[in-house]
Amino acid sequence: MSQAPPDQFMLDVRARAVRRVRLRRRLALAAVIPTIAGTAWGMAQAPDQRLWILVTGLAVLLGLGLARIGWEPDPPRPRPDTGLEGAVVVGIEPTTWGKADGDGRTHWVRVIGRPLGSGTEHLVHGPYTFDAEVGCTIRPGMLFGFRRHPTMRHLVWIEPRHSPDTLGALRRDATSPEARPEPAVVESVGVADTPDGDWWPTTVTVRAEQDGRLLRETLPRLPEELAAFEAGQVVSILRTRALGECAIVPVTMPPRFDLRTG
Amino acid sequence: MGLTATIIATTLAVLVGVATLVAWGIAEVSWRELRKPPQPHDSASHFRIRADVWRRSPSSVQWWLSGGRYSEPRTVDGVAVGEVLAVLDGTWDSDGGDIEARLRVALPDGREVSVDTPVHRERTVQAGTFLPVRPSSGRGDDWSPAVELDETGLRTLLARHRSELGLLDPETARDLLDARPAEVPLTSIRPTGRVRHGHVEVEVTADRGEPGPARGFLRPQEIATMRATGTALVCETREGRRALWPAWY
Predict the structure, then answer these.
(1) Would you state the pLDDT for residue B99?
(2) What is d(CA B243, CA B236) in angstroms, rounded to the nearest whole number?
(3) Do residues A100 and A153 both lie within one domain?
(4) Chain A residues with CB inside 8 Å of B44's CB?
(5) Considering the domain boundaries, does residue A2 fall inside one?
(6) Are residues A239 and A169 in the same domain?
(7) Residue ranges per structural domain of chain B
(8) What integer is the mean pLDDT of B159-183?
(9) In terms of domains, do A173 and A241 share one?
(10) Residue B51, pLDDT score
(11) Do A178 and A134 fall into the same domain?
């Protein structure tokens, strides 16, 4: 991963913040001399109260100093119109904790993902929210949908909702629209010896709960994705027309906790 | 102005004066930082931090949670290995210190308890991690992290727990009690197809010049950390086999 340069959006946001803080800085500095002069004059006029006047003057200076310190969150990037892509969650970084905003329930995380079929260096990341009272239910190995900002390589817009059907269709042929999800139990995982980069052809064999038939799905997967396929684990499958095969419905990230942009 | 008022006013003047200097200092530092060009976030930093914690684990629970050392580590009885189910509401210390986090933890007997603890490394404490806990003295159902436990006790406890879950074979679990990891550059991470308790067994092949492959059960985020940093932590058993250094927690 190489460090990407800032794009125009970041530079504009920073320039606005510099202008805002520069104005506050100039106003504060302009008020310093009158405050010091006023304090000195007051101390000279009322020698008995000079310590209290000094305290008052210092308090005003403290207020001016505090007024210069201000942090405002960066405004959200607009949702890009680029095409939908899918990625596997490979890392979760908390970025804010409790009482992070007005409602006191929203936490922010930075989700790090590996776009489907991509090379080792091509990680993407984007902000996402979860409910502080429930905890973060995003797990590495889950799939999510994202759109790339046209001027950024790694920072992406993460979709607020992640349809398993849509994301599943990004990595395999679409299943019949009549196919209905049904439960199945994982029997075994087989891995072929010819990876495409970090993506290993894996065959997951499941037993359909409905009729007890053994079905399988073969897809190139990251090792990270296999955690969801422990023997005995219940998964959701869609039957395909090919005999003995199925499509396993991918486990996707939960919907974003709020619908703010980020 | 009486003596008492003079003392109070002088004290206040000193306190407010110091606070004023600090406030103006912070404002000036922030201003200088703001004038630097913005840098987009690089995900590599996340994996570097995780890899560093992994390399130095198990050390102590106190160190793992907050980066600090417990002053008097010792043998502690009655410690169980819980599993973090969720990291709930926490209070962020705006000075960059610990986070007062609330963890929901599953105990080995199936009970779920709430554990309040300061956390500094928020990346490491995530759902699915193993946390040595013990009952808080005299407070019924209250549990707290076993921060006093010494490293020998901690290794024994966590290696046994992993062995019981099938994540380590008994010989490797025994050999890990006094092993140290070596960092090796890796060329491939091959899944074997075995999956246990949210861990995926992988076989790591190192660069030419290194001895044979090493196997181990790792969580998805640990596999991603190895790949992102391009290195694996490997140790050698007494029989000369190579095993992946577990993430312990």
Answers:
(1) 78
(2) 6
(3) yes
(4) 1
(5) no
(6) yes
(7) 60-150, 157-244
(8) 93
(9) yes
(10) 94
(11) no
Residues of chain B contacting residue A132, judged by C-beta atoms under 8 Å apart: 88-90
| CATH classification of the domain holding A231 | 2.40.50
| Residue at A144 is within a domain | yes
A254 assigned to some structural domain: no
CB contact under 8 A, B42 and A1: yes
Same-domain check for residues A154 and A220: no
**Contact between chains at B17 and A200 (C-beta distance less than 8 A):** no
Of the three residues A163, A190, A214, the one that is the final residue of a domain is A163
- Of A148, A163, A178, the position where a domain reaches its end is A163
- The boundaries of the domain holding residue A112 are 85-163
- Asked if residue A170 lies in contact with residue A180, where contact means CB atoms within 8 angstroms, the answer is no
pLDDT tens digit sequence for A162-215: 999 889 888 887 677 778 899 999 999 999 999 999 999 999 999 999 999 999
Q: Which fold has domain B60-150?
A: OB fold (Dihydrolipoamide Acetyltransferase, E2P) (2.40.50)
3-state secondary structure of B247: coil
User: Which of A52, A125, A224 has the CB atom closest to B43's CB atom?
Assistant: A125
Indicate yes or no: CB of A229 within 8 angstroms of CB of B6. Answer: no
Please write the tens of the pLDDT for every residue from B211-225: 789 999 999 999 999
Instruction: Establish if A80 belongs to a structural domain.
Output: no
Are the Cβ atoms of B228 and A123 closer than 8 angstroms? yes
A18/chain B closest Cα distance in angstroms: 7
Report CB contact under 8 Å: B228, A1. yes
- pLDDT category at B95 given cuts 50, 70, 90 is low
Q: How many domains is chain A built from?
A: 3
Contacts of B17 in chain A (CB under 8 A): 58
Q: Is the pLDDT of residue B30 over 60?
A: yes
Instruction: Look at A70-84, A150-164, B51-65, B230-244 and tell me which has the smallest mean pLDDT.
Output: A70-84
Residues in chain B with CB shorter than 8 Å from the CB of A136 are 86-87, 126-127
